[in-house]
Amino acid sequence: MAHRHDHTQIDFTEMLPLLEQEAELFTPMYRQAAAWLHKGQPEPGLIVDAGSGPGVISCLLADTFPAARVVAVDGAEPLLQEARARAGRLGFGDRFSTLEAELADGLGDLEFPADLLWASKSLHHVGDQRAALDGFARGLAPGGTLALLEGGLPTRYLPRDLGIGRPGLQSRLDAAHEEWFTEMRAALPGSVAETEDWPGLLAAAGLRHTGTRTFLLDLPAPLSDEARAYVIALFQRRRESVADVLDATDLSTLDRLLDPDDKAGLHHRPDVFLLSAQTVFTATKPAGA
């Protein structure tokens, strides 16, 4: 099958509303992860959020670790601008700063090494993930912790049989998204195929793997208006990215799901839910390194 690189280019600035929407909705899960880190983590002086986006998690980390300074690192200045505004609104502005940098080579611009480095679903947007992990390790203070959120399970939103179209639509959407993800990775500058053995990759970067834990977000039906709006926006984005993979029947079903006037669509269905499981891997930098 031909690569669809025109569908794999991501404009994160354009995605700002969806990124904020998602991070705010998933905050209960991230709060669990931050509490887990806090329990096993000496009070850090400096926290770096690598691939911070609009700073929702950066600010959550600032709240969880009230004595820490937080640096949000991202390659898109409009997202960092929103992160600074959010930190100011929440009262963290005096210990919050941003760094515009690409993760592949930008952490070397940190003024001080990090005691805690958080990277949430950002590493897979770097072509050479192994090299990026090496850079993360260099950006850690001796004894510091890297918390890497990657993997987990595909998020679920709908029952298997929707009453319209063929049953199992979401499984086919997941398969199409996996194909898109593979092509997105292949199209990244300097892309290197890598087995996603995160503990092994952390060890190869000179870090000691210390823990793995999966966190759950369970928003049962009926969803709040905010959660429903997020699901609709996500399905619209999926419709655009996998349109040339699904067959005509599934595309017709997707169009019905996205039609605000269709009573069987996402705007009106009482059975839309959100169930997500995401995994965090932690590793520490040896004190003598």
Helicity, as a percent range: 25-40%
Distance between the terminal alpha carbons, to the nearest Å?
A: 46 Å
Q: Which segments are poorly predicted (pLDDT under 50) over 5 or more consecutive residues? A: 1-5
Name the CATH architecture.
3-Layer(aba) Sandwich
Share in β-strands: 15-25%
**Assembly type:** single chain
How many domains in all? 1
Going by CATH, the homologous superfamily would be Vaccinia Virus protein VP39
Number of strands: 8
Return the structural class.
alpha/beta
Order of helices and strands: HHEHEHEEHEEHHEHHE
- Helix count equals 9
Question: Helices and strands in order, then pairings?
Answer:
Blueprint: H1 16-25, H2 27-40, E1 46-50, H3 56-64, E2 69-74, H4 77-90, E3 96-100, E4 114-120, H5 129-138, E5 140-149, E6 153-156, H6 169-187, H7 198-204, E7 208-219, H8 225-241, H9 248-258, E8 274-284
Parallel strand pairs: 1-2, 1-4, 2-3, 4-5
Antiparallel strand pairs: 5-8, 6-8, 7-8
Helix pairs in contact: 1-8, 2-3, 8-9
